[in-house]
Amino acid sequence: MSKQVRTLIIVLAVIAVLGGSLAALLLIPRAGEDSSSGASATASSDPGISLIDKSKDADGKSVEHPVKKAVLKTGDREEEKDEDGEITTPAYAGEEFSLILNDEEDLVIDLYADLSVGASSAVNTLSSNLAAITASKKIADDPEDPSIYGFDTPRAVVTVTYHDDTTYSFELGDETPLKEGYYFREQGKSTVYMVSTSFGNTVSQGSLNYVGTTLYSAPSVESDDDSGQAILRDMKLSGRSYAQSFAFRATTTDDGSDVSFSPFVLTSPYRRMTDSNVMESYAALTSLSASKAVVVNPTAEQLKTYGFDDPFSVAELNLAVKTTEKVKDEDDKEVDKTKYYNVRPHTVTLGNKNNDGNYYCMVDDVPVVYLVSASSVPWATLQYDDAAGNQLFMKDITTVDKVIVKANGAETVFQLEHFPDADSNDDKMKVTVGDKTYSTPNFRTLYQWLMTIKRLGPVETDSAGDPILEVELVPVDERDAGISAKIYYATASSYNCVMGSGESYRVSADSVDRAVAQLEKYLAGEDLEKIY
Q1: How many whole angstroms separate alpha carbon 417 and alpha carbon 21?
Q2: Could you tell me which residues are beta bridge partners of residue 181?
C-alpha cells in the first residue's frame, strides 16, 4: 500500500473518531493560516502558481534556449498494476543523465550525443517544461513528515542550469492519491506543491524516452522537379522468415514489356514480373518509425535475447527520388528515361517479436534496439511466391517477333510481322507459319489463352515424361528479354512449369489443356473460344 493511501486512510479514521463533518472542518486550515500538519493540510487552491520562469530574458523577450543544461536523476520504480491486474507502469531502474546543448546548439541527452539516433520531440517537451515551472496547488508550507509525500525516495531529482547561468533544483515525490498530479518541492525548502501529471511524467521518465524514433525518412524531391517522387527503389530480403532469399527493384523505362506492367521486377533468384496487387503499396514505404527504443549499446547477450543472433528478417534497401529526363534514343528521337537521385541506403534487421506482436528492430549501424509495429515492416513475412506475378508471361504482343509452340510432339513457329501505322487493328499484325498466313484476331485470342496459364505456387511433386507444352517468345529487340517455358505432367490437377531462367512452379492442368486445345483449333483454321 502506498504512503499516500495509508495517510488518506488515517485522516479518514481521525475524522470518523472526532465526529464526522465537524472534525473535518477543524482539520482544514483557515485562509492564510500556515499549514504544518502534514498530509491533512490541503488548503491552498491558488491556481497557476509560478515557481520559476526563465523562458524570457530581462527585457521580456523569449529566449531560444532557456535551458542550458539539466541533470536528471530518476529513482527506482516498482511495477504498478490497475484494478484488472494489467501493468500500467513497468518496474524501472533509476539512472542519472543530462540534457545538454551540443556543438550545433541542439538540446540532446548526453548519453546519446554521439549516436545517430535522431531528434526526439520529448527533448523539446522536457526543455519547455523546465523553462517555466508552474504548480497547480500549494499542499503544505512546512510538513512534519515530508516522507508521506514520497520525498524520502523521490521519483526524480532535477537540477536545471538556465541561459543566465542561474540554477534551480527540485524533487518530485509521489503521485497524489486521486492522481491529480505529483508532489513537488524545491530542494532546500520545505513547501510542498502539486504539479501537473504531464509535468511529473515528463521529468521522471527514463533516458530511453528521449531517443528519437524516426529510423529513416524519405529523400527530398528537388524544388524544380515537378515529376519526382520518393520511392522504395530496391530491396533484398534474407533471414529465417523466408523460404528463399530474393530481391526486387522498381521498374524503369529500360525494362522490357515482360515486366513493365508491374510496379517492381524480381531480380533474384529469378527475373520476372511481380504481383501488382501484392506489391503496389511497396513503393510508398519510404520511411520507418519505431514505437520506442528498448536498449542502447546492447550487449551480445541482449542481442541474442532479442533474436539478432539469427535475424528474422534482414532488408537491404535503397530509397531514392524517381523522376524522368528527356534523352535521344538510337533513332535520335526524344524519349523519357528513368532517373534516380538522392539515393539513401538502409539496412533494417528484425529480431524476435514481443508479446504484443511488435518486432525488435535495428537500423543500419546504430547500436540501438527499437520496437516497430508489424504493419510498418510488411516485408517481414513477404515470400517470393507472394511477390511473384502469377502469369506465365505478360508481354506486349507488339514487341514479339516469333512465338514458338510445341505440343503433342509438333513444333509450330508463328512469325509475327508488325505494321504500327496501319489503320485497322487486324492490319497492324500479320501471322504466318512458313508460307501460310493465319488469322490475326484468332491469334490474339490464342496469345491470351497462353497468358491464362498462371502459377499456383511452388512445385510439390516431380515432373513426369516429355513436356506437354513448350512456349518460347522471341522479342523483336534483341536487347529485350525473351521468355521460354516447358510444362510437364505432375498430377491430374496441376502440372509443373519450368521457365528458361530455371524457375519452377505449379500451374493449373486445366488451363494448360485448354490452351493446347485452342492451339489445335487455330492450326485447323477454326474459330477459338473467347476467354471472357
Answers
A1: 104
A2: 196
